[in-house]
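pls design
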């Protein structure tokens, strides 16, 4: 019987640098002999990527945004994540449900109980085995974003939004310290990679 794979997610405010570390995470796991599937949310499937276009560029009601995030997530789980894990692959996703709690609850002010209903519907008890949270003060993240790229709909929000997103992430990490590991994203890339390697090597 195949041993099911592991599901690892990367989270943080926009500009915290998580995307920089995706390839490092994948390389480290491949070196251990695992098949690795790299993916992202919103997105990860053809339908999910179409929804991502809408989510990042079309104005909409906050609840519509939340529902579309979970519609994309349902497709992602059914089409990609669950089949990959079942064949023994390790799946690494750039964002997952913690982002819905951070952005739609923390950022937009939707009640967490509404997200919990959707999470339960779409995921049952399914959750990542390990979440790396790249933590950075909102103003530092803002400066990094400004230097790096054109802003999407989320990235045009004011600093107060990202501070609330950050605090929501940190309170989730406090509630689930075993799964969500906080990394200080102000560290140098080599120092961060050493910390990431250590966490990955401890994951059975
Ligand atoms: P992101 O993954 O940061 O992509 P890029 O690095 O290309 O900017 O962008 C996705 C955006 O979607 C990000 O601003 C956070 C947002 N998001 C939510 O608001 N809720 C969610 O549940 C997810 C998965 C993402």
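designed seq:
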């Amino acid at each position: 019987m195949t041993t099911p794979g592991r599901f690892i997610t990367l989270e943080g405010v926009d500009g915290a640098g998580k995307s920089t570390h995706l390839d490092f995470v994948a390389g480290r796991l491949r070196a251990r002999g695992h098949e690795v599937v790299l993916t992202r949310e919103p997105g990860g499937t053809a339908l999910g990527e179409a929804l991502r276009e809408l989510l990042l560029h079309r104005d909409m009601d906050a609840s519509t945004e939340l529902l579309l995030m979970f519609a994309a997530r349902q497709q992602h789980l059914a089409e990609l994540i669950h089949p990959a894990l079942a064949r023994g692959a390790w799946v690494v996703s750039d964002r997952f449900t913690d982002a819905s709690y951070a952005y739609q609850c923390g950022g937009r002010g939707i009640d967490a109980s509404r997200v919990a209903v959707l999470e339960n519907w779409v995921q049952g008890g399914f959750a990542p085995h390990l979440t790396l949270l790249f933590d950075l003060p909102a103003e530092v993240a803002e400066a990094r974003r400004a230097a790096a790229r054109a802003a999407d709909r989320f990235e045009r929000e004011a600093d107060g939004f990202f501070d609330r997103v950050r605090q929501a992430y940190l309170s989730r990490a406090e509630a689930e310290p075993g799964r969500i590991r906080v990394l200080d994203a102000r560290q140098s890339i080599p120092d961060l990679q050493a910390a990431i390697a250590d966490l990955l090597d401890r994951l059975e």
